[in-house]
Amino acid sequence: MTVLDVRDVVKVYGEGDTAVQALRGVSLAVEQGDYVAIMGASGSGKSTLMNILGCLDVPTSGRYLLDGTDVGTLDDRRLAIVRNRKIGFVFQSFNLIPRMSALANVELPLAYGGVKAADRRRRALAALDQVGLADRVEHEPNELSGGQQQRVAVARALVTAPALLLADEPTGNLDTKSTADMLDILDRLSAAGRTIALITHENDVARHAKRVIRLVDGHIVDDRRRTHVDEPPPGLVGLR
Ligand code: ADP
Ligand code: MG
Known about the structure:
7 helices; 4-stranded antiparallel beta sheet; 27% strand; binds adenosine-5'-diphosphate; 32% helix; binds magnesium ion; globular; alpha/beta
């Protein structure tokens, strides 16, 4: 089952002399259960691609099918529904709502989706438990560490059981320990069959993915599946 099917997508910002070609014909298919890291230098088009994959923006030309739905045919209202049902977002800056408990933050996408209160609470508690925060559900974001806030964000992304977990530099604002915790959670989600697309410029983060795609100037220049012979485990690096 193909979750993401991107065909010759072009994105141009602005027009005339000031037009910027952020994506210059990107094609990409991602199957259910894959874990893809999208890498590239600043300005290479990563966030633009993420915004399109996440239905936050539409391509200038080309097609994009998400879980079998051609999103180019949807009006704004339907696009918002697809976004809510099919995609879980994790951002570099967490984007939690301040002065709302972790539980209420995680319930939010379910509230938008029209899920009843008791069901919302049960599902949000289960999602927080999955990321190891069962004992912090009543805490507000400013009472949590960065790593804990990002785990709340992952719980919020997962609570709708989306077809795709989409993360833009999810470890970009985290310290080493919290980064390791986050990568561990993503590894476990991947092992459990989740489809994950993650944007990063760090090799140590991309190393966790099953497949690594590199963008240069709005083109995919490399797309390869990682195999275990690619790299020795970190502890053996000095021995090779
Ligand atoms: P990355 O996330 O890899 O740093 P972006 O997708 O943010 O790259 O940007 C790709 C290119 O598109 C850059 O040249 C950037 O300046 C330009 N760009 C991004 N967003 C906009 C926008 N809203 N308006 C105009 N240009 C933009
Ligand atoms: Mg970016």
